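User: Run a structure prediction on this.
Assistant: Running it now.
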Amino acid sequence: MDWLLDLGYFGLLLGTFLAGTILTFSSDVMLIGVLVAGGDPWICLALATIGNGSGALTSYLLGRFAKWEWLEKWFRIRPETLGKQKSAVDKYGVWGAFFSWIPVIGQVFMVALGFYKVKPKTSVLLTYAGCFCRFLVWVLLYVNYGQTFIDWLIR
């Protein structure tokens, strides 16, 4: 991940995008790394939100264009699992998109939402809203307590 941090803002955008796809690693660490390196908190918030949300939406598109056979073969998802997912999607619906940022579970939500073709416009809106809220918490923590924490670490 160091090479992504070396790319600055572009690395943050690329890294959070990749973290939002089925490649799971911590986009939170990427965000904090760029902030500590001197990145503008509000630019970082925007880029992390766009990157992570767009990555999550690629999982939605994967699901949207997937066929049952593909999911069984490539992801080793059994038909029973898809049936359970369908009942969860019916129960929680599009709100799963808001939690697309949760590692692994979020990607499953997004693939399922796409597979069952759940409200695309609302899915997009909730995906970006969830990512924004997640990164806003980190930015606010950094802005309000970041320097205090860094000073404590240096001691």
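The chain has a mean pLDDT of 85.
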